[in-house]
Each structure stands twice: as C-alpha cells, then as structure tokens.
Amino acid sequence: MSRGRTRDARAACSSVRPTPKRFPEDGPDVIAAAAKDKRFPGPYLQDADQRVANDFSAYRTPHAFVFRGGKLVYNGTVDDNAEEPSAVTKTYLRDALEAAVNGRSVTVPTTELQGCGIKRKTDKAAGGR
After folding, report:
1. Are 76 and 69 in contact (CB under 8 A)?
2. Residue 9 lies in a domain
3. DSSP notation for 67-117
4. Nearest to 125 by CA among 9, 106, 117
5. Domain-located, residue 6
6. One pLDDT digit (tens) per residue for the chain, 129 residues
7. Cβ–Cβ < 8 Å for 129, 122
8. Domain count, the chain
9. How many Å apart are CA 93 and CA 112, to the nearest integer?
10. Is the whole model's pTM more than 0.85, yes or no?
C-alpha cells in the first residue's frame, strides 16, 4: 500500500478540516492544494461547525482513526516523524490500515499524537467565545 492508499474496496480514507474560517493559513484552498500535492486519497470534508472533530475527540492534526466492522482499531498519529518524511521508521497508520484491510489485529492500536492542536471555535486564545 503506498501512502495509505489501496485499490481494495474494503478501505476508505478521508480528510477532515475542523479549523474555523478565521485562520486563512488553514483555509480550504490551502489545505486542498496541500492534499493534492501530497496525493492524499479519498474525499475531503469541510467540518466548519467542528462536529466531526468534536465527536471523535480529535485534538491535533493529523489525528488518524481506523475502524473495522464499526469498531475503533487504531487511534493516533500517521508515523514517527511528522517533520521529516525521509526519516520515518514507523508507519503506524499504514500498518493499521493494512492490518484492518487484511483482517489482522492492529499491533499498535494507539500512538501519541504529533502536530498542531486543532483551533476550536470556543478557544479564547483563538478568538472564540
């Protein structure tokens, strides 16, 4: 599986944008261009009211969730080096997706998150209420 993609119909990937509109650096055009550049598979969801991020208790980006048969089997980061792709030695999300698609147990079901915190609409520091 390359970059988390699979041609197998048993797996699907999507990206969610939970950041409020007042942060143009995280705007839909910027994120869409990055997704295209990085060749992210699957649909892209604008989560303007942050309902999806809140329902999943996501608090950093990226924050990956893998489900199999309606059960959460992986919750964590993408890999072990968010800063330098060439230095990645552990591909947590890819491994979890491959295990889920092939009906195996995910050997590392939870990892510590990396990345920036999700800016909530209610965060006072982010200009929320």
Report:
1. no
2. no
3. EETTEEEEEE-SSS-SS-GGG----HHHHHHHHHHTTPPPS--B----SEE
4. 117
5. no
6. 334 444 444 556 666 666 556 667 777 788 778 778 877 766 777 787 888 888 989 888 888 999 999 899 999 999 999 889 899 999 999 999 999 999 999 999 999 999 888 888 776 555 544
7. yes
8. 1
9. 12
10. no
Whose tokens are 């699907």? That residue is 12
**CATH number, domain with residue 21:** 3.40.30.10
- Distance between CA 29 and CA 48 in Å, rounded? 14
Beta bridge partners of 15: 44
Q: Which two three-digit tokens encode residue 99?
A: 């295990």
The encoded tokens of residue 90 equal 């552990």
Beta-carbon neighbour count of residue 43 at 10 Å?
10
Q: What is the DSSP string of 10-33?
A: T----EEE---TT-GGG-HHHHHH
Q: How many CB atoms lie within 10 A of CB 44?
A: 14
